[in-house]
Write a structure and sequence with these properties.
Number of helices of chain A: 26
Helix content of chain B: under 10%
Largest sheet of chain A: 5 strands, parallel
Strand order of the largest sheet of chain B: 1-11-10
Largest interface: A-B, 45 and 43 residues
Bound molecules: siroheme, flavin-adenine dinucleotide, iron/sulfur cluster, FE2/S2 (inorganic) cluster
Helix content of chain A: 25-40%
CATH class of chain B: Mainly Beta
Number of helices of chain B: 0
Largest sheet of chain B: 3 strands, antiparallel
Number of strands of chain B: 11
Strand order of the largest sheet of chain A: 3-2-1-7-19
Order of helices and strands of chain B: EEEEEEEEEEE
Distance between the termini of chain A: 50 Å
Shape of chain A: globular
Number of domains of chain B: 1
Oligomer: heterodimer
Structural class of chain B: mainly beta
């Protein structure tokens, strides 16, 4: 039998998905050829905006020429299909190419709608759809100070974010009275607006643009129907999308009243052997502007061509969860009160800026829709309730009420989900699919991603997918493999126990006891860290030197050019003028770039290896100690001035902060640890974002634990209130040591607590009620650590043997001749050849 | 004209006691930066170029030594790519430009000696 010839018009996300699916079915049966109007093969349009935070077109690519060639797929770029000849079954392109088909697939996507405003076609007026558009926008941004996005919907706000990233003053102009009118209700829309305005984006609602003319101060002036106007240098139109049905229109394929190629449940159009999928397709009078439904259509069409007429497209859920300009927003189901008899619950916290609304059916049993702004943790739960038509709990308000005292809010375990529950909508992976993958031997997120593709699209489902995976593994009685690396068949916690119980003092002793090989960059630093936590030896002891990771190795943070930064400890951020002068003098003498850090102290950059001892000698002589900016250990205890100066302060936060910093300095732990101490509830020290956060009240201290800034910010949980100084110190001693004993390597307290079975309640039980009967031990370990504290830099500069390593060459006093510097803003910066392919590997 | 005989003679670099067990040092040899490592468990010494082809900085002597199966390697202190200490090959890339130059190394009378690899 000769091969079926399939022509796919459009190589966007859905067209590519179709091709990928059909060749997966049976590549010997089909001959595939695809045309694209764009200059690139399919790329990830959903993630396209990351272009502005450094992703390249290559990073966004979903496929490449090699993959297509390998699978025998022909492709033609930069060539638009302009006509179809159904009688002879041919497609005709703009360049005059004619190709015949047995089956034709239209996957032409959609195009941005540009409102017919006079002046909308000038230079620096853009749309936001393709990578080429983004390149044009970037160029305009270089010569613009002000930019306007027309349209305050989902994509408009994404375009607004792009303008913010380009550093131009950003305005969003919306015709409707609120932002994201399609997805959000009024309360949600207005909170979103407030949050976005706080970020410096100016929002103008109920504005209809009438014309775009030459500006007086800026390039253009936009006049609005209400008589007002706005001057700007560039404009991005994002006023909605329209299905790209030009070809269908021209050739008489039936289209909907308001556009879109009409399809049935098998994605067939009104013309024989012609299918339409993705954003150009109209199903039951509905266009789906999201990628997941398009992917489903691709699968359905491929199945149908393969002779499977069981698989059908049955509609798709349009729920969305996203981060717009850093604000979390989610919308589920029907939110505009169009369901008869529906009732709602609203939670509106103006202080924390959280808005949640739950819409339930007339009988209160089923979820109709939900809007979440500012806190979208409930999304996963709510979506599953909706998708699986599950019964609501007796008191639905618990689903959106904030958890008190850090308790997990009422939810349902993943165990309760039916197998059909969709976990990853980007790749249509259900709970059942994950179950199957686990049964087939998959036991890590990495393997799950490889075998099912779950969580490799927008990433929004990864937390849920991981929960389902872990749950399935546990159900099957698997023990999740926790070996730290190939050299030790133990987890960090197990290694810590072995070291503590057998009193092991060196890496080689541990290797002999229970390991193999030479060790590696995973286990060596981890073991060095455990040894330091329990025995607090000098980290550059001969036995320990070879174990230290980059920064500990030379007691400084290595910079991109191989030089180091120097951070003296400034407890609580308090420093005398004389101290500051010494830091200034050292910086001047060694010509170090000087900056105040995000941790409220001073960082001196650009020190070469051989200069470190001389620099530290001066600092130590002036009474400074190492700030451990390089160590997995206590970093800073950030404090406000508190009652000593501040008119609102109720406790001496600065004095207490300095005591704490001195108490815990130098102590190695699984990851770095930061404290914050605020003198009153105004919280100027941002204590709730720290591993340990203390806030003074009239009645004593409130202790928060497991806060985190950084990559995944988290507010700390309130551990206990109204504590005395003494109680506070005891609790922190215990929690800190318990963290050291039980956390995984490189696990901050936030993740540690989140992974702890029983959570904060369990932790309270251990620390306050001594349920494990280990508190005396924890306190003793902490005491011995505090006694063994030494300033590593002081020890180092006093030991000539140790200083030998602080030289660029062992056999010469020359220094690294490749280092080069330039001066900017009166300070020194490295000149750097662009590093090639820099990627963090781990 | 003096004939460069670097391929045939060994150059003294430093005493074996100047090396830190299981860690690296950098030496200047024929105007090149060479990273030298001493593995205590096996008593082997290794010499490769000090320049990190990924990070583009002279830092490999400050990397961490490790092994995977039988291969002994150094992991760059900048972005953690691993390089085979015997062959100079990058374990995380097979591109030719990511391969390190290697040097012949030996210990004679407590002296660490280098020679251009033949
Ligand atoms: C210097 C500084 C930035 C600045 O110019 O202000 C800085 C610089 C570095 N940070 Fe930071 N962080 C600095 C404050 C912060 C803060 C703000 C704070 O402490 O209040 C945060 C968020 C708070 C938090 O940690 O929860 C912060 C979150 C991170 C993270 C993300 C941690 C996380 O849990 O997500 C990393 C990466 C890591 O540790 O794995 C990181 C890692 C780094 C490293 C060590 C990256 C590296 O390995 O080269 C940077 C080198 C430090 C150096 O060369 O001296 N830095 N970093 C700040 C030093 C503070 C100090 O005085 O010690
Ligand atoms: C900035 C942005 C953010 C988005 N974010 C999300 C999100 O978070 N979640 C989500 O689900 N969706 C999101 N979307 C929507 C998602 O990208 C689309 O649903 C998806 O790309 C639709 O795929 P498609 O293949 O139908 O259309 P497209 O990806 O647009 O592909 C159609 C292709 O066909 C080509 N073409 C058209 N006509 C012809 C012709 N006659 N001849 C040859 N080629 C032709 C077009 O040039 C185009 O390359 C976003 C879209 C944008 C622009
Ligand atoms: S938190 Fe703010 S208001 Fe309160 S004591 Fe500190 S500085 Fe003063
Ligand atoms: S839902 Fe987008 S990756 Fe899974």
């Amino acid at each position: 039998m000769s091969k079926q010839r399939i022509v796919v018009v459009g190589n966007g996300m859905v067209g590519h998905k179709f091709i990928d699916t059909i060749i997966g079915n049976d590549d010997s049966k089909y001959e595939v050829i695809t045309f694209s109007e764009e200059s690139r093969l399919a790329y990830d349009r959903v993630q396209m905006s990351y272009f502005f935070s450094g992703k390249t077109a290559e990073d966004l690519a979903l496929t490449d020429a090699a993959y297509y060639e390998e699978n025998g797929i022909k492709f033609v770029l930069n060539d638009k299909v302009v006509d179809l000849d159904f009688d002879n079954k041919n497609v005709i392109t703009a360049s005059g190419r004619v190709e015949s088909y047995d089956k034709l697939v239209l996957a032409t996507g959609s195009y941005p709608f540009v409102p017919p405003i006079p002046g909308n076609d000038q230079e620096h007026c853009h749309v936001y759809r393709t990578i080429d558009d983004l390149e044009d926008i970037t160029k305009s941004g270089e010569t613009s100070q002000v930019g306007v996005v027309v349209g305050g919907g989902l994509l408009g706000l994404e375009a607004g974010n792009a303008l913010v990233n380009l550093g131009v003053e950003t305005h969003v102009v919306e015709f409707a009275p609120r932002l994201m009118a399609v997805q959000l209700d009024e309360g949600g829309g207005s909170l979103l607006r407030r949050k976005i305005e706080e970020l410096g984006v100016q929002v103008h609602t109920e504005k209809a643009t009438t014309e775009i003319v030459a500006g007086t101060e800026r390039r253009y002036r936009m006049n609005f129907a209400d008589g007002s106007h706005l001057e700007t240098d560039m404009i991005i139109f994002s006023a909605g999308i329209r299905p790209q049905d030009e070809l269908a229109r021209k050739t008489g394929i039936p289209i909907g009243e308001r556009g879109g190629i009409v399809i049935n449940n098998h994605c067939q159009t009104g013309v024989e052997d012609v299918y339409a999928i993705g954003e150009c397709a109209l199903w039951e009078n509905f266009i789906f502007g999201l990628v997941a439904p398009g992917y489903q259509m691709a699968k359905v069409a491929a199945a149908h061509m393969h002779g499977d007429s069981e698989t059908a497209f049955t509609g798709a859920d349009m729920s969305t969860k996203l981060k717009l300009l850093g604000v979390d927003v989610a919308s589920i189901g029907e939110v505009h009160g169009q369901t008869p008899g529906a009732q709602s619950y609203t939670y509106n916290d103006e202080i924390e800026q959280v808005y949640k609304r739950l819409i339930v059916s007339a009988d209160g049993k089923k979820l109709v829709g939900a809007v979440l702004v500012g806190d979208v943790d409930a999304y996963g739960n709510l979506l599953q309730l909706k998708l699986n038509d599950m019964n609501l709990p007796a008191n639905p308000s618990t689903l959106i009420l904030p958890s008190s005292d850090g308790e997990e809010s009422a939810g349902m375990g993943v165990d309760a989900l039916p197998d059909t529950a969709a976990i990853c909508s980007c790749f249509d992976v259900s709970k059942g699919d994950i179950k199957d993958a686990v049964a087939a031997g998959c036991c890590s997120m990495g393997e799950l991603k490889a075998s099912t593709k779950a969580a490799t699209g927008c990433g929004g489902c990864s937390a849920l997918a991981k929960q389902v995976l872990d749950n399935e593994l546990a159900n099957l009685g698997f023990e999740v493999k926790k070996d730290i690396c190939e050299h030790f068949a133990y987890s960090r916690q197990e290694l810590a126990d072995i070291i503590r119980v057998k009193k092991i003092k060196t890496f080689s002793a541990l290797l002999t006891e229970c390991g193999s090989g030479l060790g590696c960059e995973i286990c060596k630093p981890a073991v060095a860290n455990i040894l330091a936590s329990y025995w607090n030896d000098y980290v550059l002891e001969d036995e320990h030197v070879g174990l230290q990771d980059t920064n500990d190795n030379y007691l400084g943070n290595m910079q991109k050019d191989g030089t180091y930064s120097v951070v003296p400890r400034i407890p609580g951020g308090e420093v005398t003028p004389d101290g500051l002068i010494v830091i200034g003098e050292v910086a001047k003498e060694f010509d170090l770039y000087t900056k105040i850090t995000g941790g409220a102290r001073v960082d001196l950059f650009g020190a070469q290896l051989h200069q470190l001892p001389a620099i530290w000698k001066k600092l130590v002589d002036a009474g400074f100690e190492t700030g451990h900016a390089y160590g997995k250990s206590l970093r800073t205890v950030k404090s406000c001035v508190g009652s000593t100066w501040c008119r609102y302060g109720v406790k001496n936060s600065i004095g207490f902060a300095i005591d704490l910093e001195n108490r815990y300095k130098g102590l190695r732990s699984p990851h770095k640890v930061k404290f914050g101490v605020s003198g009153c509830t105004r919280e100027c020290a941002e204590a709730q974002g720290k591993d340990f956060g203390l806030i003074a009240t009239d009645k004593g201290w409130n202790l928060y634990v497991a806060g985190n800034g950084g990559m995944r910010p988290r507010h700390g949980d309130l551990f206990a209130s109204d504590l005395t100084d003494e109680e506070l110190r005891t609790y922190i001693d215990r929690i800190y040591m318990f963290y050291i004993r039980t956390a995984d390597r490189l696990q901050r307290t936030s993740v540690w607590l989140e992974n702890m079975e029983g959570g904060i309640d369990y932790l309270r039980d251990v620390i306050i009620n001594d349920s494990l009967n280990i508190n005396a031990e924890l306190e003793a370990e902490m005491e011995s650590n505090i006694e063994n504290y030494q300033c590593e830099w002081k020890t180092t500069i006093e030991d000539p043997e140790k200083l030998k390593r602080f030289k660029h060459y062992i056999n010469s006093n020359e220094t690294d001749a490749d280092l080069a510097f330039k001066v900017e803003r009166e300070q020194r910066f490295p000149i750097f050849k662009d590093a090639i392919e820099i990627k963090e590997l781990s | 004209m003096e004939i460069q005989s670097t391929n045939t003679t060994w150059t003294d670099i430093c005493s074996i006691n100047d090396l830190t067990p299981n860690a690296g040092i950098c030496a200047l040899f024929n105007e090149q930066q060479v990273a030298i490592f001493l593995c205590k468990q096996t008593n082997n010494v290794y010499a490769v170029a000090n320049h990190d082809p990924f990070g583009q900085a002279n830092v490999l002597s400050r990397g961490l030594m490790g092994s995977t199966e039988e291969t002994v390697y150094v992991a760059s202190p900048l972005y953690k790519q691993r390089f085979n200490l015997v062959t100079g090959e990058c374990l995380d890339s097979d591109k030719e430009e990511h391969k390190l130059k290697t040097f012949a190394i030996r210990i004679e009378n407590e002296q660490v000696q280098l020679k251009e690899a033949s």
